[in-house]
Amino acid sequence: MSQKPVDQLSEDEARAELAALAKAIAAADIAYHQNDAPEITDADYDALRQRNAALEEAFPELVRTDSPSGAVGAAPVEGFAKVRHGVPMLSLSNAFSDEDVTDFVARAKKFFMADTLRDPDFKLEFTAEPKIDGLSASLRYENGVFVKGATRGDGSVGEDITENLKTIGDIPHRLKGSGWPAVIEIRGEVYMTHAEFKRLKDHSAKFGGQDYVNPRNTAAGSLRQKNPEITASRNLNFFAYAWGIAEDAEGNPQPPAATQHEIVQKFGDWGFVTNPLMIRTESADELLAHYRMIETQRATLGYDIDGVVYKLDRLDLQARWGFVARAPRWAIAHKFPAEQATTILTGIDIQVGRTGALTPVARLQPVTVGGVVVENATLHNEDYIKGIGNNGEPIRNGVDLRVGDTVIVQRAGDVIPQIVDVVLDKRPADAQPYVFPHICPACGSEAVRELNEKTGKLDSVRRCTGELICPAQAVENLKHFVARDAMDIDGLGDKQVTQFYAEGRIVRPADIFTLRARDERSMKKLKDVEGFGATSVKKLFDAIDARREPELDRFIYALGIRHVGETTGALLAKEFGSIENFRAVALAAAQHEDGHSVFPQIGGIGETVRSSIMAFFANERNVQALDDLLVEVKPKPYVVTISADSVVAGKTVVFTGALEKMTRSEAKAMAERLGAKVAGSVSAKTDILVAGPGAGSKLKTAEQHGVEVISEDEWFERVGR
């Protein structure tokens, strides 16, 4: 989407952008409505539609025949019978600010100004109710009997999902009470509660099933099952809030009531579940107050909502005000901020990382933020909980976090959710300040905050002093050791490491490479353990053996020395050339009174890293663990093969996209060994961009700067590998 203001676009630019927007919006509609797997956030989708509307308003002569302005949803999914709606199922226009809501009310008052002047008793009333984040459905009843149900589809034609809808307990097979029309289509939202979503997600994880992202997508997928028994097992729910056709026995229109509010009340009389948070009012201020009240209750509702819907109450006035394009003029959806939500802090847990860091994690009442269910959020450290930032400055206006607080959670893009504010007037009277533990919860050792020698300030992180006796650190170190960017042992992931450690099969890295031999001698073979078999165990052992001669830089990084990342590992490997040299120098420095005079000065490696390396080798248990590991593993010497005929020596290379023959870290190491400089972003100084499948913005930037672009295969051909 262009960032250029609409009024500065040429006609050709506007035409091209409208074409791109139509394509992007159509693809997003299919992903959301047909596939139940959104590819962009609600906020990004809304931005596309807003941009499209602005362009069409500025360039009305360029409005396309396939314009998204008149489209609702997406075409029905193949495999289901089609159902044509007697009355189209339209979407709603969106409001994103208080001003949008007051403008909506003002437009209504302006449209009906003549009525107000003519009749002093005339008044405009509006309803407000939560906007349920689920799948819209229409239920046709004839003489009170449910005969057919359908999805929204493209608004005109939906999918016949009658049998699946019949499995939902909130949908009556026969209407209760009396007074309903001979034919009526009841419309509403099928949704899944947070409790049911968690039950299904936990059950799926236990048996190795699919990973469910959020209740909305899961509910939609459940409703489209070919087997109604599967739908029934998902325990879906339904809120009724609208209607389509309403006719008497002769086919004449027969509205069930005169107002929106009254009709929803009748739905309840007929056996439907309606939302208890619906109100009716004349005031825009009261509509906004209700919006804020619902937002603060969002976390406790037990189901997902993404805003509040306002509707003109009287049906005759709705008919007079009419429709525009894909939406009625008489209704509007006031969306919540897409990347924020209000929820409740139910607890604070302490996790111990592989470096001994005690990291607090917030346990939250589940709430959907940006399309993902959020139950946890990072709290960083004990100062963060107190309302103090890394530099000592106040955060959240200096307000601390307490269990029971109502908090605002933010999630932007792929960033880990974080708590950005506290709703103080919702704080429980008995909420107590959180006391951060000074004892490691994993091993009982003292947890301390180190003094930074340079600044004289305490480190913001509290760390366990238990080192290798701490089981939390041992497991995390093992996970780090086998990770893809470290030793990269296929088939030995977090789950297997945790299980093997708990069973005593693997305690130290060296144990990984003796696992096959010990298993052969064991009475209880790994192949007989639940979740394994002869084939999978053989693959695991073969994968372990394939890593007995790792690259030196990956091996150094895999050791898990604090502050030694991938880049530092490569610098150390390049400096020392072999693991034997690295061990000897580091051990000598660790044993010397002034270790910094012994350990060489290496560009890119500062005092903090050198101190960390020496501290690692000063620990006899670490040295013994390394020596035991080197009995089983022989890291390759780090050889820099810069030769006179190296075609990439001195060139700046960038890798992007999904590389298929090597990992990103392997690609970087290869290029550096050949004398190239590897950069993370493309600029005019870049010489070569190696682009794998899925290359995105870097590819466009390279084309703009005239940078040479080659494939992964062409890279291997060029470097002679």
Describe, in short, the structure shown.
With 721 residues, the chain is an alpha+beta fold. The chain contains 26 helices and 24 strands. The protein folds into six domains: 6-71, Orthogonal Bundle (Helix Hairpins); 93-335, D-amino Acid Aminotransferase, Chain A, domain 1; 340-465, OB fold (Dihydrolipoamide Acetyltransferase, E2P) (Beta Barrel); 467-545, DNA polymerase, domain 1, CATH 1.10.150.20; 552-632, DNA polymerase, domain 1 (Orthogonal Bundle); 652-719, 3-Layer(aba) Sandwich (Rossmann fold).
Question: In words, what does this structure look like?
Answer:
This protein is an alpha+beta fold and 721 residues long. Strand 21, helix 24 and strand 22 form a beta-alpha-beta unit. The protein folds into 6 domains: 6-71, Helix Hairpins, CATH 1.10.287; 93-335, D-amino Acid Aminotransferase, Chain A, domain 1; 340-465, Beta Barrel (OB fold (Dihydrolipoamide Acetyltransferase, E2P)), CATH 2.40.50.140; 467-545, DNA polymerase, domain 1 (Orthogonal Bundle); 552-632, 5' to 3' exonuclease, C-terminal subdomain (DNA polymerase, domain 1), CATH 1.10.150.20; 652-719, BRCT domain (Rossmann fold, 3-Layer(aba) Sandwich). The mean pLDDT is 87. A 5-stranded mixed beta sheet has the order 2-13-10-3-9. The protein has a 5-stranded antiparallel beta sheet with strand order 16-15-14-17-18. Helix 18 (552-558) crosses helix 19 (566-576).
